[in-house]
Amino acid sequence: MIRPITEDDREPVLMLLKSTGVFRHEEIQVAMELVDRVLVDGPASGYEAWCLVGDNSNIHGYICFGPVPMTDSSFDLYWIAVDPEKAGQGLGAKMMARMESVLAGRGGRKIFIETSSTPPYEPAKALYGKCGYSLKAVLEDFYRPGDHKLVYAKDINIKPR
């Protein structure tokens, strides 16, 4: 089940982000700032955060996204994480498909994703490609020397001609 995050999910999401072994301490702090904003301000925060919950009520995935300011129906995927013990089971793709469906239903047109070029992010980049996102930009040495920012995008609300 994929559902909006609740206060009870805060600590399990923090543990999930740490367990991936991908995110640096500073990145986890930023992710949790967004979680806290969603929990305190709800929709007024400008973000949405959902959890993928297993049959045992454990959190197996987390996704956070929101509208890109000053755009006409474009959205950013800020965070996505899957429990390493559940990796490779399609949970990331399931969360992304749900996000895309909801945003397309609201008139969303595009989703953008920014990520690192470093090896720990290879599974995320593979997921984005599998889900139909294409690489649109590479900003060299963005995060630090040798760590480029990669920008992926996907049109989600294309009307047939």
Helix content range = 25-40%
- What's the CATH topology label? Aminopeptidase
**Reading side by side through the largest sheet, how are the strands ordered?**
1-2-3-4-5-7-6
What portion of the residues fall into strands of 2 or more residues?
25-35%
List how many beta strands DSSP finds. 7
Radius of gyration: 15 Å
Number of helices: 4
- Extract low-pLDDT stretches: none
Mean pLDDT: 93
Distance N to C terminus: 35 Å
- What do we call the CATH homologous superfamily? Gcn5-related N-acetyltransferase (GNAT)
- The helix-strand sequence is EHHEEEHEHEE
Number of domains: 1
CATH class placement: Alpha Beta
Instruction: Describe the main β-sheet briefly.
Output: 7 strands, mixed
Q: Tell me, what's the shape?
A: globular
Short précis:
The chain is 32% helix and 34% strand. With 161 residues, the chain is α+β, with helices and mostly antiparallel strands. Strands 1-2-3-4-5-7-6 form a seven-stranded mixed β-sheet, sandwiched between helices.
Features:
single chain, 161 residues, alpha+beta, Aminopeptidase, 7-stranded mixed sheet, 4 helices, 7 strands
Sequence-ordered SSE layout with sheet pairings:
Blueprint: E1 2-4, H1 10-19, H2 25-41, E2 48-53, E3 59-67, E4 74-82, H3 91-105, E5 110-116, H4 122-130, E6 134-144, E7 147-155
Parallel strand pairs: 4-5
Antiparallel strand pairs: 1-2, 2-3, 3-4, 5-7, 6-7
Helix pairs in contact: 1-2
Structure notes:
The chain has helices spanning 10-19, 25-41, 91-105, 122-130; strands at residues 2-4, 48-53, 59-67, 74-82, 110-116, 134-144, 147-155. With 161 residues, it is of the alpha+beta class. Helix content is 32%, strand content 34%. The chain has a seven-stranded mixed beta sheet with strand order 1-2-3-4-5-7-6, sandwiched between helices. The chain is globular, with a radius of gyration of 15 Å.
